[in-house]
Amino acid sequence: MNDVMSVINLSDPEEHIKELTGSRALASLPILGRYRVIDFMLSNLTNSGVKNVSIYTYGKTRSLTQHLGSGKHWGLDRKRDGLYLFHPDRVFEDNMPRKGDLENFINHIDYLKYSSQKYVILSRSYMICNIDFRPIVEEHKKSGADLTVVYKSLENHVGRFMGCDTLKLDENQNVLNMGKSMGKERYYNISLEMYVMERTKLVELIEKSIQVGDSNFLKEAIFNRMEGMKVKGYPFKGYLSCVNSVDNYYNTHQDLLSVTNAKDLFNENGNIYTKVMDAPSTKYSETSCVNNSLIANGCIIEGTVENSILFRDVHIKRGAIIRNSIILPNVEVGDATSLNYSIIDKNVKITERKMLFGDASSLFVIKKNSVL
Question: What angle do CA 114, 219, 151 make, to 5 degrees?
Answer without folding.
Answer: 105
